[in-house]
Structure formats: structure tokens, C-alpha cells
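Issue 218. Parser rejects a valid record. Input:
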Amino acid sequence: MSWFKPFDKPQAAERQAPPTKKETGALGEKLAADFLKKQGYRILETNYRGGRLGEIDIIAIHKGELVFLEVRTKTGDSFGLPEESITYTKKRRLASLALYYLQSHRGLPESWRVDMVAVELDGGTGKAKRIEIIENALS
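Output the parser choked on:
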């Protein structure tokens, strides 16, 4: 019997599937929350669901103002920048969610705004290339 076995080919290194949209979003939200804390934001809630209106990614207080934050994460710029991905409908829904939250919670600062956090990830490593807070994103 020969030592040569023609059917024993070395196995190619198994490739890991690219992250799903949900996984990319969750990573972006975690990176955004960590970044916001370093910038002095006090996070009150994450992934707040407002009934059928939808979800607010992060609710925080910054410099005495209540801030509702929408996190947009992209791994490449082939379909535009994260900040370009927010639609008119999404902006309206965020405003409705903010008002819903204000009506259902007491003891909050009177002043509030809706911001966006743009997160760009390196597609190969999954590390943040850019994190930017865009204040008053509904304007």
C-alpha cells in the first residue's frame, strides 16, 4: 500500500461569513455608545421600543439636554455614507418616537433634540474608521 492518498487534499481555511446587517448594526450601536460615553453623554436607554412606532437606538443626556440618537453603520461607501441613509420617513418616525418617550416618562430635561451617530467600519477588521455625532439630525 502506498503512502500517497490521492483523495486527502489539504482543507482550505474555512472562511467566516460576513456579518449580517443585524450584527453590523449591533456592533455600530455598541461602538457609538462607547464613543458617546467618552464624549460626556450619560446613556439612559438603548434600543427603546415605542410601541408600533419603532425603536430609538440610544437615549442619553448631554449637557442637561435629552438626546435621542439614531445610529447608522456602514462597512463601505458603495451605497453612500451612513448619514446619507436616513430617509424622510425615518426622520418623521424618530420625531414621533421622541414625543412618545417624552409623554410617557417624567422628570426629564425640557430641552431635547434628535442626533445621528455615523459609524463607518473597516470591512476587513470590523474596527471603526470613523464615528461622528451629527447634532439636530432632523433639521
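Fixed in the parser; the record now loads. DSSP finds two helices and five strands in the chain.
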